[in-house]
Amino acid sequence: MVARVLGIESELNAIPSNKSATSYPLQARVSASGWVDSIPEGEIRFIEFTGERHDGAYVLEIMGDSMSPKYLPGDLVLMVPVWETTDLQPGDDIAVHCDGNEHEGKATFKKIVDVRDGVLILEPINKSFKALAVECGHVSRAARAVSIQRRVGR
């Protein structure tokens, strides 16, 4: 419309983008501060992320501040499932869901600092929180963070 007012003729109405948006389901909220019951959201919502498409990916909303300043409460994080715990690497930011131990049915979000003797050592970015150790055999689901959305004003 501005082009028309200025007398400029153009077939270009928008700046082209080589990134397409994909909608992913918001699966649940996960605590970055400790272990919480991993209860799915009541109503399915979809969140759009631009960039590379990830099959089987889903979105988690961060609760707590143990992963701040990189991840803040309310951030939406695109997670890609990791099917084998042997594929988890130090430096990965991951969500893990546990079964068969004292954390039965609970999940957390942390950074992997080490994997040794079948145990994941998970550490928060915020050093006022403590590290956690989880036996790989008790991890029923794991997913790696690949992208983040933060609301304006955060």
Account of the protein in words:
The chain has 154 residues and is mostly beta strands. It has one domain (22-149): Umud Fragment, subunit A (Ribbon), CATH 2.10.109.10. The protein has one helix and ten strands. Strands 1, 2, 3, 4, 5, 6, 7, 8, 9 and 10 form a ten-stranded mixed beta sheet that branches. A hairpin with an 8-residue loop joins strand 8 (119-123) and strand 9. It is globular and about 40 Å long. Mean pLDDT is 80; it is low at 1-17.
What can be said about the biggest beta sheet?
10 strands, mixed
Q: What is the number of beta strands?
A: 10
CATH homology group:
Umud Fragment, subunit A
Low-pLDDT segments: 1-17
Which percent band covers the strand fraction? Answer: 35-45%
Query: What is the typical, i.e. mean, pLDDT?
Result: 80
- Tell me the radius of gyration: 19 Å
Helix content: under 10%
Topology diagram in text:
Elements: H1 2-6, E1 21-31, E2 36-37, E3 46-50, E4 58-63, E5 76-81, E6 93-98, E7 106-116, E8 119-123, E9 132-135, E10 139-149
Parallel strand pairs: 1-4
Antiparallel strand pairs: 1-3, 2-7, 4-5, 5-10, 6-7, 6-10, 7-8, 8-9
What structural keywords apply?
10-stranded mixed beta sheet, 1 helix, 3% helix, globular, disordered N terminus, mainly beta, 44% strand, 154 residues, Umud Fragment, subunit A
